[in-house]
């Protein structure tokens, strides 16, 4: 870590070029020959990525940024805030600290937080940044996290781990054992230092596969940001063998959509033909696979066992998108020509044999407009198209 990057004139140059084309900037003469221009360009790139994702860091003076990849891979402030609200206690140790965004938010809820990071330079950067952010109850340790645990010789209320996928397993099925650290292998070791563990994994991890690898799972949080699943959070408690709760969360600009259900409970969906309103679950619910639970818990009908669209006569507050059905047509040549050919529409397919691309090409349907079309299959196995208008929910 070089503190030369914090010189006023260099920081002014970085801030003045936040929205510049860095590739073009690289061909210009380095105005600060005493420091490698590549380091300055990386600060510009990384800080620009932090503008929306990490506004607290972006707006704080004298922050040093690591590689742009570290910024891309770190939690956003919004998901870090959510994590800090689901666990609590006196002390927490993060075994895979990274850029430290999660720990900054944990430090607002825990009296003491320990940040472990294998990369010594990144550890120095994070320690410096915590000082600028006035996060005085976080201690940074560089090196192997198991060594840190052994050397500290203490127990924590929580252990937090964000294992990274090894680079040599490209193309293989994503398993926790293929990550560093190998959590399934080290779980019993971790239990010597805490009875509670929170594990963050990428959304690509299959939930059923994770449950095979992990024991003592108490809850799984599926966290989406603006309807894009960003992470899975696994609450592990030593000795726990009870029911596993699934918590789906979709963090939006003005609200948070939530749906909780018991993984061990058998939910039964009621099937029904399309009524006045149609509902499409958000991405966190889709990831959970809780399709029958949605019908049961909200007391709304499912269009088909495999369609994952829901309907009701009266509108309800639903965690996802809500539409009013204006017309229901069979997927047939005459009806398609009359209602959709050469028109503009937003198209979604659910349990339907054709892709959006094929449908658009076949019927010359342009993208956009105020019409929303769901190509799907009803409970009688008939191929239908729902012509809808979107309902704006508060």
TrEMBL record:
GO terms for biological process: methylation. Residues 320-390 form the THUMP-like domain. Pfam families: PG_1098_Fer, Thump_like. One of its GO terms (molecular function) is methyltransferase activity. Residues 277-319 form the PG-1098 ferredoxin-like domain. Keywords: Methyltransferase, Transferase. This is Class I SAM-dependent methyltransferase. The lineage of its organism: Bacteria, Pseudomonadati, Bacteroidota, Flavobacteriia, Flavobacteriales.
């Amino acid at each position: 870590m070089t503190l030369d990057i914090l010189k006023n004139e260099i920081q002014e140059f970085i801030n003045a070029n936040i929205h510049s084309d860095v590739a073009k900037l690289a061909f210009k003469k380095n105005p600060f020959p005493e420091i490698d221009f590549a380091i300055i360009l990386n600060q510009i790139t990384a800080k620009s990525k932090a503008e929306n994702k990490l506004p607290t860091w972006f707006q704080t003076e004298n922050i040093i940024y690591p590689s742009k990849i570290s910024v891309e891979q770190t939690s956003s402030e919004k998901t870090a805030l959510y994590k800090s609200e689901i666990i609590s206690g006196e002390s927490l140790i993060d075994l895979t600290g990274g850029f430290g965004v999660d720990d900054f938010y944990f430090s607002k809820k825990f009296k003491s937080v320990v940040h472990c990071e294998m990369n010594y330079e990144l550890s120095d950067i994070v320690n410096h940044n915590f000082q600028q952010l006035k996060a005085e109850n976080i201690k940074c340790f560089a090196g192997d996290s198991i060594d840190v645990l052994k050397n500290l010789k203490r127990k924590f209320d929580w252990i937090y781990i964000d294992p990274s996928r090894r680079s040599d397993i490209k193309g293989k099925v994503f398993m926790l054992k293929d990550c560093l650290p190998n959590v399934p292998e080290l779980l019993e070791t971790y239990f010597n230092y805490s009875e509670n563990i929170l594990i963050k994994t990428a959304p690509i991890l299959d939930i059923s596969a994770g449950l095979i690898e992990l024991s003592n799972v108490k809850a799984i949080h599926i966290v989406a940001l603006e309807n894009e699943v960003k992470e899975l959070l696994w609450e592990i408690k030593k000795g726990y063998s009870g029911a596993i709760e699934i918590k789906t969360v979709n963090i939006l600009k003005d609200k948070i959509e939530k749906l909780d259900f018991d993984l061990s409970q058998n939910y039964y969906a009621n099937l029904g033909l399309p009524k006045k309103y149609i509902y499409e679950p958000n991405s966190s619910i889709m990831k959970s696979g809780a399709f029958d639970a949605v019908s049961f818990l909200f007391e709304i009908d499912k269009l088909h066992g495999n369609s994952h669209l829901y309907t009701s006569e009266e509108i309800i507050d639903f965690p996802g998108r809500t539409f009013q059905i204006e017309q229901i047509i069979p997927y047939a040549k005459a009806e398609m020509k009359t209602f959709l050919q050469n028109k503009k529409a937003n198209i979604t397919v659910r349990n339907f044999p054709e892709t959006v691309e094929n449908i658009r090409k076949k019927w010359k349907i342009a993208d956009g407009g105020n019409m929303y079309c769901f190509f799907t299959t009803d409970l009688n196995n008939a191929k239908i198209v729902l012509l809808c208008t979107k309902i704006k929910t508060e």
